[in-house]
Amino acid sequence: MKTKLNLTGKTPKKWLKAVMSDFDNFLLEACDSQRKNASMALMFVAKYPQYSKVVGDWLEIAQNELKQFREIYREVENRDLKLGREISKDLYINRVVMHCRNGRKERFVDRMIVAGLILLRGAERYRMVAAEIDDKNLQDVFNTIANEDTELANRYIDMVSKYYDKQEVAERMKVLQAGEAEVMRGMETRAALH
Question: Cβ–Cβ contacts within 10 Å for residue 86, how many?
């Protein structure tokens, strides 16, 4: 039986209202999120090279995130918006990562699960935005990203399950899913993916 990652708790509607009232900022923040996701996958390659069975997976995830960035960036260009000089800090990610354990093995297990949760929360939110906007092309872009990120989120779980006991991974998933939901509920509502 394959272990599947899920979210605990849904994004509140007030988040969608904030996005729709400042859509340009949402697009810029979404670009930043895609670049951060690509960087995170590459960071895993640099930090955990001993997990050689999954290095190729991380590289594919990084490439996919950059492809998604390019898709959203096209809309940024169409609107004549400019990316910020620096990528904005992501308090959501920082707070979710704080739920990770220390210790080499434990940290690896938790970081893979957290990476999946981050992608899954983004997927949920891209779907929400796609359902709200009228632009068919952008709807397709967001729905495609949501579908890809849902698959990639569970790919992180498959990766960690190649090395560690599936029951242990499932137990940590429950803990980290609850932690992610708590962080999400406690975040300030703003026009950003996270």
Answer: 7
* Alpha-carbon span 84 to 29, nearest angstrom: 9
Per-residue confidence at 44, pLDDT binned at 50, 70, 90?
very high
Residues whose CB falls within 8 Å of the CB of residue 46, separated by 6 or more in sequence, listed in order: none
Choose the CATH number for 13-186 among 1.20.1260.10, 3.10.129.10, 2.40.100.10, 3.40.50.300. 1.20.1260.10
Q: What is this structure's pTM?
A: 0.95
Sort 144 into a burial class: Cβ within 10 Å, 0-12 / 13-18 / 19+: middle
User: H or E element: which one contains 108?
Assistant: helix 104-132
Residue 158's pLDDT is what?
94
Question: Which whole number is the average pLDDT over 22-42?
Answer: 95
Q: DSSP secondary-structure letter at 192?
A: S
Distances (CA, A) of 47 to 58, 157, 189: 12, 18, 32
Query: Which residue reads 């950059």 in tokens?
Result: 66
* Span 147-163, average pLDDT: 95
Q: Rounded to whole angstroms, how far apart are CA atoms 35 and 80?
A: 19
Q: Are 41 and 62 within 8 A, CB to CB?
A: yes
